Amino acid sequence: MLILRRADVTDVLSGRETEIIDLVAETYRLHDEGQTSLPHSTFLRFPEEHHSRDRIIGLPAYRGGERPVAGMKWISSFPGNVAAGTDRASAAVVLNSLGNGHPVAFVEGAVISAKRTAASAALAARELTADNPPAAALLIGCGVINLEILRFLAAALPDLREAALYDTDPARAEAFAARCAEEVPGVKARPVTDLAAALGEHRLVSLATTAATPHMDLSACGPDTTVLHISLRDLTAEAVLGAVNVVDDADHVCRERTSLDLAQQATGNRDFVAAPIGALLRGTATLRRTADRPVVYSPFGLGVLDLALAEFVREEADRRGLGVRVEDFLPAFA
Asked: Which terms does the UniProt entry file under GO BP (predicted)?
């Protein structure tokens, strides 16, 4: 068993945004071709009131193609951690041998989860704004995910020069701006306090908050706006129904009271979903913007992306001799 710590994962993935975006795109294509297996995620919730916002999610997955991989991501979301000064999410990924099913690697998964999420967002931003790439973006929610998204947007959108930052806690936005300046120096980041005005001024918006229920619509947005709805529960059902919607997988994202699930409940169907990102990448579907509707990208965050990236990390770590090997994790066989 190879155990890869956070430092090992960070070492392998730092500065490789373009490669990660390409890997995510390849995995989406394989998924659209039917070369993946993705059971629905399992949500572990707790009966106590003080745990009402907490959950741990299991995402088993298999990716076929030339580099097959199988395993499971196990990720917790405890929003109260943010106020305590620690990360909301923590995760681990188990990779299994496709020869005998044995677990072969145990990988710190929070870095992988953040980077594959950001790569998915940046990939969608690149594809959905290809005709008119933006020079600025609005980030709503000043946490780990939007920092990674900004890093990946800078790699995917060469014209990106500015980022407006909004958070319900203005001090948090100020601190976030300083961190962005340090880690993504090519993009000038500045806090804003008037959300409606910022929505009207930006054609690219990234939503990455800890919201558990819808709290905003898109009435302040222009019709040429592309919204990366990463946290999945920010938009009202009406906002979703008033948009052109792109997803990663409708079966996965229309569950667990996401904004799209609420839209599905309101209409009794999923006709509001225009296309999956994999089909757009393969050219088997096209997306048509309209004069009066923004485009909203709502990715569930498929476990197959975590598995693909974890295997990428495992292969590179193995070449570099990174990680800790536990030779007697499994029983020896004669």
From this structure: siderophore biosynthetic process
